[in-house]
Structures are given as structure tokens and as C-alpha cells.
Amino acid sequence: NNLGNRYSELGRKEEALKAAEGAVEIYGGLAKKKPEVYEPYLAGSLNNLGSIYSELGRKEEALKAYEQALRLRKKLKDFKTQFSIYPYLINATVKAGEIDYHALAEWVCAFLDLYEVFKENEGRMWCNGYFVKEGTFKEINFVTLLSRAENHVHCKDRLERFLGRITSLSAEPDKEALKESV
Questions:
Q1: Mean of the per-residue pLDDT values for the chain?
Q2: This prediction's pTM
């Protein structure tokens, strides 16, 4: 799993893909025997595989890997990692082309629900810092996408407020800037 990440960082995408696919295969086999031990590793490997597929432009495969990772994270009740998967899943959905706006709105709302939980439990600095560091919402205009989705005005409004907070932060925030932004 880590080998795939290192290959990817070096720009060796095909080698990264082979390593990530191997990790999914290994952890998938181990998870069948001891799910309580190996499913968290399988979910992480699926997330990494999705990222590599996305880097290679294999959008449908990326989306499938992220969806599998999210299903496992939900099963495991791993909310912190689930929170971090949603932006990748949303980006992969949009990049894949034919958008199911209902599913997209549901994912965005689920993500925002988790954001509310984590800003209270983990602190707003952690949540906002994650998105500033990752630059997660810079690629896609989710507000425009959600405005096209009928019956999801509540989600659109929540997302607009969230994006207003996040986009006001600088690329390299300090702790004081983060505290003032929320």
C-alpha cells in the first residue's frame, strides 16, 4: 500500500497502480479470513487505488474504488476516514461525466453532516486545515452542480456556507488565521 503511494509520488504511475492493485488483492484475501482485523486496511488500499486510477484518468474505476472504500468505512463506523473519503468520491463522480445529481447531493449532505460532527469533536481547525491543505474544493464548483439538482436546495445552502468558510482561508494558514475564519 505504501509502496504504491511512493511510486505515485515519484511519477511512476503504472508501478503505483500495480502496487495498489496488489495491496487490494492481498488485504481483500486477508479480510475474508479476519474482517475485523483487515477490513480497515482494505478500505485504505481501495482509497489509494481510487486516487491512482484518478491520476491515470480512469474515472469509472476510480469512482468504483472510492465507493467500495466508503462502504467499508461505513460498515466499520470509521467516521473520520469516511469524512476524508467523501471529497474524493464527489470529485470522482463529477469527473466521471454522467452525474447522478441525487446521489451527489446525498454525498455532499452526508459529508456536511460529518463536518458538523468533527468541527465539534476534533475542532474547527482540524476540519478547515484539512481542506486548505488538500485544496479539495478548488477543482469543481459544487454549488453550481447542486443548483442543477432538483429538491436539494437545503444541501446547496449548507454547502455555500461551508465553502464560504473554507475558501476564505489561505493556502498556508497559521493557527490564528484558522481561528478567525470560523
A1: 73
A2: 0.63
